[in-house]
Amino acid sequence: MINVGQTNSLEVVKIADFGVFLDAGEFGTTLLPSRFVPEGLEVGHFVDVFLYFDSENQLAATTETPIAQVGEWGLMKIEGVNSTGAFADWGIKDKGLLIPFSEQRKRFTAGQNVLVYVYTDKASGRIVGTTKFNKWLDKTPANYQRNEQVDLIIAERSELGYKAIVNGAHWGMVFPSDVFGKLFIGKRLKGYIKNIREDGKIDLALQKIGVAKMDDLSSKILETLEKKGGFLPLSDKSTPEAIFATFRTSKGTFKKTIGGLFKQGKIVIEQDGIRLAD
């Protein structure tokens, strides 16, 4: 089955001076222009190509990698605006991604970077983008467990904190008290389920909660010390940025964790860092 708007593995059926023709199933054949043809490609070989409709609504193939395929989110730059909507650079040089005015939560201008969801419009069959995410999220119950690791995309910033897309399926919120490191729209990172409220809303954390968080960081610190010859130039006096760069955690959590390791006799805390105990 051919999936337009996604990467497909297609067979070469004919070679021409201007490219190769690929078997596109129910669409017949499609041309992969010569500038995209990998060296040594022959009839009978398979090649991975992204399929989309060109400006004449004909099936087109490219070996370029889009920022986001159908069913995915991606941070894209607005290239221009016309009477139909805004066009975003989604990584396909010959074809901008249309974001119709009806799919914009607010009007865009050229040069803006926006988080976009890519989908196929059922009425027209066109691949388009949207910034109205609500109709694609929270369609199934949020069946997560506390401290479960999830994939996050930072989508919005508000007075309450950062709204994030959880596993591509649900909305979640990272409150200011749980923010450390630099967050920005479009950033992808791992997070953890902190709480699911009675109304189904999800609270998120960027590190494990409670004892699990401390145990996880303890193991990382000991493993890193062993890899570094038993010493790390990090201590409770180090900057939050230095600690985050090494362990992706807050300074407060780091201080509590090395304090626990010190009490257990596993490390020695020195003025300029920490060392494995003999």
What can you tell me about this protein's structure?
Belongs to the CvfB family. Residues 4-63 form the Conserved virulence factor B first S1 domain. This protein is mainly beta and 278 residues long. It folds into four domains: 7-62, Beta Barrel (OB fold (Dihydrolipoamide Acetyltransferase, E2P)), CATH 2.40.50.140; 73-134, OB fold (Dihydrolipoamide Acetyltransferase, E2P), CATH 2.40.50.140; 149-205, OB fold (Dihydrolipoamide Acetyltransferase, E2P), CATH 2.40.50.140; 210-276, Winged helix-like DNA-binding domain superfamily/Winged helix DNA-binding domain (Arc Repressor Mutant, subunit A, Orthogonal Bundle), CATH 1.10.10. Helix content is 14%, strand content 38%. The protein has helices at 210-227, 240-247, 251-263; strands at residues 7-16, 19-23, 29-33, 46-53, 59-62, 73-81, 85-89, 97-100, 113-120, 127-130, 149-158, 161-166, 170-174, 188-196, 202-205, 231-232, 267-270, 273-276. The chain has a five-stranded antiparallel sheet, with no helix packed on it. A five-stranded antiparallel sheet has the order 8-7-6-9-10, with no helix packed on it.
